[in-house]
Amino acid sequence: MRRDNNTPAVSIDYNIAQLLKQPMGAGRARTINVPLRHDVRGLDPGLDPVDPLVATLKLVRTKSGVLLTLDGSTSLRVPCSRCLDPVVVPVTLKFEEEFLQTVDVATGFPLGPSEDDPSLLIDRHHDLHLADIIREYLLMAVPMYSLCREDCRGLCQICGHNLNQGPCGHSGRPSDDRWSSLKSLLDK
After folding, report:
1. What is the pTM of this model?
2. Residue boundaries of the structural domains of the chain
3. Most buried among 7, 86, 144, 179, by the most CB within 10 A?
4. Of 39, 37, 51, 38, nearest in space to 12 by CA
5. Rounded CA separation 16/82 (Å)
């Protein structure tokens, strides 16, 4: 795994070979506290993880792999929907996915090609790689409309000035020349 200059890489990978040797219904649970900044590569550049992901993982052996249940939360810094200033929003992740085996744990033989999502496959070393699936659910959990404050005034439509910092000197909305003929009717 790549490393940043000053910080060690963090992994959201778990070897589940022992669980795969157990009968169906066997399970494990663990709590994770993972800093996402180094884990979730490909995260939208507008999203900046502020807090680590604190979650409970439950792993249950199924006929064809492992059922993962994750229940956790974190905070992200996202742009305000009106003025684009950064806003810290809490995000809750709650999902359940089945990861499928690609290699038989007892014999080491491949189990055949799979048409399933590659991020939901257990690799040949019996490792679960959770960074991709966490990234996907994290992106879906971000609120579509985040405000820095309830009375956010947004940006000036003409010059782009942040109106929360005071007026910019433009009055009203920019004029659209396509409507000038109709506007002349209102002026009469």
Report:
1. 0.74
2. 13-152, 154-188
3. 86
4. 39
5. 45
